[in-house]
Backbone:
């Protein structure tokens, strides 16, 4: 299992994601200007402030040369995980539904939050059970998940809502407490919380490791959908 | 004085030079400086760059120790943390810019201290901030400064991917006009990657990296940082620089790659006084000359004057010296990181800094006059005869029951939870953070070997205002005590001395006494000073700020997995009071809430007994015998106990030793520890963990939930 973690100018969490992925498989950095995904089995679009997040969070990164390859990779069914800024980039690239708006506090917020696994039958949560609670930190200014009511109904009905903030833990005003969603096909997943910062009890929690373990298990045995 | 000289006098006085200093310059040069040279000299001879009122005093601080790799004089100090690794660190002020424009002032304060650290080859791994504002309940301006300064710190630190792991904030009316924003940065480097700033090798190329040079921050060091603030400071806003963390992130990665590949001879950041300072420091340390070609410098706007280019404080720039055969490789790395890189000059034999424009020198100065010849002044200290500070407004009358006092203390601006502020910073990026703010008295960061470093920053200005020598010593003890609580032993110290106008005798006295107190405490604890910063002239028409030495200490613990916590962890655990804790109410938070004058000597410190207590706590944490450790600071033992209960969501019942004032203070000398009965057998046990209330026998009993509410909402409702 080989993970590729994209590094944009302004990425901050790419090394954290690389190290987290390396706990369950091989992991390499992919440069934003390269069109080569180096034969990886899964792509991680990491957190940070790609291109300074100028204009709008994630809006410039979607035009990076490497993102053409990521879109193609996703069309072919490859696993793509977007964390925080990566989630924003994937929404901007229309690889994921919905949009991320400024927090209702309008401020950056760091908090260790509890998440509820809504759908445990995905390539990204297969190692969890439905209803599992994961303790994972959030840190962002632009993390309020938004979609129209119809769209939200559709996402919920089709199992695309993968993670919710547990009751009382919604840090940003996300609609219906949504913390993470996948695409219709199920191979692209984005979440605002940072599983790569929750892979070692010494630094707070190891619950985030389950996301990476799920991906490895899926690539080894892709029966879940 | 000649006719020409008197016509120049308006100019040099405007730039902050005295008549005497100008005379010295003319004597040394054998001629009058031209306008470009005068601009350069006025900055290099400013208090901010030349430390002319503090340098002699600072020689009292001990700077040598077994772990010191780099001491004062480099961009940052560095200590050896074992396994071939070094920690570089430094604290610096950005007070005056933050008072004028708090968001950008604080943001560029963080940006500047980060550059100091990666300039010596270390990757920034942590930031801490020490902030001071006026009373938030009384002052809308202070609430504005707080919220914007915190926003600026978060904007820069969060965006560049360096965790903000700690810090402290105090509110006192003496900071109403002069807020303090001190930022500390720690960097991690393989020992052999540490690099000094000395230029070397005539013929080598001087390359400017990073942002375009613009008109921002012109004269910041002299205009803002070396004079008192007063009316009309709005007009100084253009002197505040604008920060761009995205540019700095690229610059940081680029510089570290250049160093990893061994492509640089030396590296220096551009901070106060811009190119002038960077070039002359590099030349001075390397004992060489440097020629700078103004026409090569990429400018943000057309029509910039030579003096503007030379003193611009545009952010996110670095200067390096490169052997000619490596210039191509350097430019390639810079292109990869999308960092602008331009050869702008060369190292020369000789001792002159020459600024050339189309081949003609527009400035030609001996390096020595820029760096070494600024006169140093002796202070003329005089203890004040009248109190310098007005007593604070009374919130308590002194007749309230102890329950009411404790709840008021926990909710007071200086003691309440910092969560509303810390929540705006990312403390976990880079995945090293073992103890976040509120989990322990010091931040703890894991090293690759499984060992860890710990860091804390401290300084209570009100106590230094009462007793400058004792208060400054306490800051050192307090900071070291925080490290002991996580099991760390101090390796080195950095400080930022924030004071009023040193030309006034009572401020000179505060400064002299405080430095003496710092020096004594450092010697007693065996902690060397590896660097620091001085910020003077923090003074408004209403008077000086509280004298505020801020102390940051870095220490090491052998096992990250055993880092201490402050929370009571287990029902039934014994609680002990460790240390020669003999508090008084002088300079205490309680005295402040009761509106008492800022006066009184602090309790004397017994250095040997305190050092022994620090050792005892440190060893108890390291061995795992103690389940919690917390030092007794502002608000006394009652507040310390409440904090341990709140953090652990559990109650406690204690009996204080006879006559011990539950709200009296003596910082850095006493600890509340808890653990299994048998582990505390040798310690003076004062009670037990358990239940849902904090009970101090004969004094007070309160539900922990009520204590938590008071502490949690105290600051939140003010900001």
Residues:
């Amino acid at each position: 299992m080989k993970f590729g973690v994209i590094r944009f100018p302004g990425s901050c969490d790419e090394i954290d994601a690389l190290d987290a992925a390396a706990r369950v498989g091989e992991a390499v950095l992919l440069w934003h200007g390269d069109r080569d995904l180096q034969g990886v089995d899964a792509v991680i679009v990491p957190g940070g402030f790609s291109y300074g997040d100028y204009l709008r969070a994630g809006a410039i990164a979607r035009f990076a040369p490497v993102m053409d390859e990521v879109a193609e990779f996703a069309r072919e069914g490859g696993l793509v995980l977007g964390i925080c800024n990566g989630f924003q980039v994937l929404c901007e690239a229309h690889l994921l539904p919905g949009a991320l708006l400024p927090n209702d506090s309008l401020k950056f917020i760091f908090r260790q939050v509890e998440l509820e696994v809504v759908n445990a039958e995905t390539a990204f949560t297969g190692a969890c059970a439905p209803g599992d609670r994961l303790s994972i930190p959030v840190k962002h200014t632009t993390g309020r998940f938004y979609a129209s009511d119809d769209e939200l109904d559709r996402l919920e009905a089709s199992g695309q809502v993968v993670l919710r903030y547990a009751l009382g833990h919604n840090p940003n005003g996300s609609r219906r407490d949504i913390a993470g969603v996948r695409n219709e096909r199920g191979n692209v997943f984005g979440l605002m919380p940072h599983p790569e910062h929750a892979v070692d009890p010494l630094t707070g929690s190891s619950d985030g490791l389950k996301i990476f373990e799920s991906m490895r298990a899926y690539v080894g045995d892709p029966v879940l959908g | 004085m000649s006719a020409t000289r008197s016509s120049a006098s308006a100019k040099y006085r405007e730039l902050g030079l005295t008549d005497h200093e100008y005379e010295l310059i003319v004597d040394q040069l054998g001629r009058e400086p031209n306008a470009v040279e005068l601009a350069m000299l006025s900055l290099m001879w400013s208090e901010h760059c030349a430390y002319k009122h503090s340098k002699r005093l600072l020689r009292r601080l001990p700077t040598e120790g077994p772990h010191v790799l780099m001491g004062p004089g480099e961009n940052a100090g560095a200590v050896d943390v074992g396994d071939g690794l070094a920690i570089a660190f430094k604290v610096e002020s950005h007070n005056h810019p933050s008072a004028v424009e708090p968001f950008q002032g604080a943001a560029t304060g963080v940006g500047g201290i980060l550059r100091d650290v990666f300039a010596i080859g270390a990757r920034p791994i942590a930031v801490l901030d020490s902030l001071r504002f006026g009373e938030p309940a009384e002052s809308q301006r202070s609430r504005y400064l707080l919220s914007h300064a915190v926003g600026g710190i978060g904007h820069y630190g969060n965006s560049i991917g360096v965790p903000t792991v700690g810090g402290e904030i105090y509110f006192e009316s003496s900071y109403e006009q002069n807020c303090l924003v001190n930022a500390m940065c720690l960097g991690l480097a393989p020992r052999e990657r540490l690099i000094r700033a000395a230029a070397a090798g005539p013929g080598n190329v001087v390359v400017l990296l990073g942002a375009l040079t613009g008109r921002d921050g012109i004269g910041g060091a002299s205009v803002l940082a070396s004079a008192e603030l007063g009316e009309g400071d709005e007009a100084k806003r253009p002197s505040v620089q604008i920060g761009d963390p995205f540019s700095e992130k690229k610059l940081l990665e680029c510089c570290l790659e250049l160093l990893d590949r061994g492509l640089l001879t030396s590296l220096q950041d551009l901070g106060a006084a811009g190119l002038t300072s960077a070039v002359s420091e590099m030349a001075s340390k390397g004992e060489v000359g440097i020629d700078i070609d103004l026409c090569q410098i990429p400018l943000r706007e057309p029509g910039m004057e030579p003096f503007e280019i030379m003193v611009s404080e545009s952010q996110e720039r670095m200067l390096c010296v490169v052997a000619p055969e490596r210039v191509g490789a350097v430019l390639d790395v810079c292109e990869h990181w999308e960092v602008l890189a331009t050869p702008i000059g060369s190292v020369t034999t000789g001792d002159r800094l020459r600024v050339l424009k189309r081949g003609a020198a527009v400035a030609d100065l001996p390096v020595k006059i820029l760096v070494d010849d600024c006169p140093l002044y002796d202070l003329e200290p005089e203890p004040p005869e009248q109190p310098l500070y007005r007593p604070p407004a009374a919130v308590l009358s002194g007749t309230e029951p102890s329950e009411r006092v404790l709840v008021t203390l926990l909710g007071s601006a200086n003691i309440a939870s910092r969560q509303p502020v810390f929540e705006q910073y990312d403390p976990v990026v880079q995945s090293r953070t073992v103890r976040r703010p509120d989990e322990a008295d010091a931040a703890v960061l894991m090293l690759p070997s499984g060992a860890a470093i710990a860091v804390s920053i401290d300084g209570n200005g009100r106590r230094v205002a009462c007793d400058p020598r004792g208060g400054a010593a306490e800051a050192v003890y307090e900071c070291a005590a925080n490290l002991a609580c996580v099991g760390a032993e101090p390796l080195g110290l950095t400080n930022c001395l924030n004071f009023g106008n040193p030309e006034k005798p009572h401020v000179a006295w505060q400064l002299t006494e405080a430095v003496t107190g710092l020096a004594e405490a450092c010697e007693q604890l065996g902690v060397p000073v590896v660097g620091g910063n001085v910020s003077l002239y923090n003074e408004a028409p209403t008077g000086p700020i509280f004298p505020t030495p801020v102390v940051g200490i870095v220490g090491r613990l052998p096992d990250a997995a055993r880092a201490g916590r402050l929370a009571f962890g287990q029902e039934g655990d014994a609680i002990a009071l460790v240390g020669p804790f003999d508090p008084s109410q002088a300079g205490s938070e309680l005295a402040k809430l009761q509106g008492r004058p800022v006066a009184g000597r602090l309790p004397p410190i017994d250095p040997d007994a305190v050092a022994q207590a620090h050792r005892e706590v440190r060893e108890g944490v390291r061995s795992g015998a103690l389940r919690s450790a917390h030092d007794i600071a502002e608000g006394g033992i009652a507040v310390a106990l409440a904090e341990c209960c709140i953090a652990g969501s559990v109650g406690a019942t204690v009996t204080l030793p006879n006559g011990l004032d539950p709200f009296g203070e003596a910082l850095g000398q006493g600890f509340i520890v808890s653990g299994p009965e048998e582990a505390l057998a040798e310690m003076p046990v004062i009670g037990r963990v358990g239940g849902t209330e904090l009970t101090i026998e004969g004094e007070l009993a309160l539900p922990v939930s009520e204590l938590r509410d008071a502490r949690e909402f105290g600051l939140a409702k003010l900001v």
